[in-house]
């Protein structure tokens, strides 16, 4: 059974969701967790992972149906269901429910101030609860 964390952002800053996704991925990697970030805008997130912090770099690959080229690649980014190798944490930046909820140890949903994103996040929250996932919300 997956654990799902909803991170509710209060600031209306440009790219707030992407920046927070980068920070979550970085923390997960520091703990030895392999991460898959599912996003509708792969290129934008790829660029952000290179530049989100002056003091760090988060090695990653874009997922196009392949496994990571090297075992030390802890983060993969894509727009479809992720690889079997990166199932420690799914950071879901899409408005859709992951089709394979129980395949991940943890799932992170990042919700910003956009009213439509909040509405779709509430729908996903209900669906996760119906699936029996352990749930927690964090107001940031």
Automatic annotation (TrEMBL):
<protein>
    <submittedName>
        <fullName>DNA polymerase III subunit chi</fullName>
    </submittedName>
</protein>
<dbReference type="InterPro" id="IPR036768">
    <property type="entry name" value="PolIII_chi_sf"/>
</dbReference>
<dbReference type="Pfam" id="PF04364">
    <property type="entry name" value="DNA_pol3_chi"/>
</dbReference>
<dbReference type="InterPro" id="IPR007459">
    <property type="entry name" value="DNA_pol3_chi"/>
</dbReference>
